[in-house]
């Protein structure tokens, strides 16, 4: 009897952990677990996410017809469409070695400013970003010619690991 109960619970947990495609499960995954995203919102709360997943699974099963209709009408990433591109850009910027050299307080400032720049759409394809020692970003708009020259310089095999621009 105990083995049957344990096996049933184990199979239920495995099913719940891999059902992150439904809306409520995706929300818990993005906030607590990080199975389908690189960095969850609350990194130190994985236990909370594992505890919440069975409840979200039940809600997802109960609302499956509604969710299926929403996916057909609004697309696969319905509740999360505007954040995916921003988070990818933010993650790519913050994986830079220059960012890792900053102190913790400066990293917090840099993250907040970069999120603000992205959400306010102040960055264009011709924008260049500079990160100062104090964690503040400097945005420089490049001309099309300067942009292409910068890309060409960065793609050269003997290009330095980090390009420094003088003012």
Short description:
This protein has 167 residues and is mainly α.
Task: Describe the secondary structure blueprint for this structure.
Blueprint: H1 2-17, H2 23-33, H3 46-62, H4 64-74, H5 81-94, H6 97-100, H7 104-119, E1 127-131, E2 137-141, H8 144-154
Antiparallel strand pairs: 1-2
Helix pairs in contact: 1-3, 2-3, 5-7
Give an overview in words.
This protein is mostly helical and 167 residues long. It has helices at residues 2-17, 23-33, 46-62, 64-74, 81-94, 97-100, 104-119, 144-154, and strands at 127-131, 137-141. It has two domains: 2-76, no CATH class; 82-154, no CATH class. It is built from eight helices and two strands; from the N terminus they run αααααααββα. A two-stranded antiparallel ribbon has the order 1-2. Strand 1 and strand 2 (137-141) form a beta hairpin. Helix 5 (81-94) runs antiparallel to helix 7. The chain is elongated and about 70 Å long.
Task: Label this structure with key terms.
167 residues; mainly alpha; two-stranded antiparallel ribbon; elongated
Question: Could you tell me the mean pLDDT?
Answer: 75
Query: Helical region count?
Result: 8
Terminus-to-terminus distance: 74 Å
Low-confidence stretches: none
Shape: elongated
Beta-sheet strand percentage?
5-15%
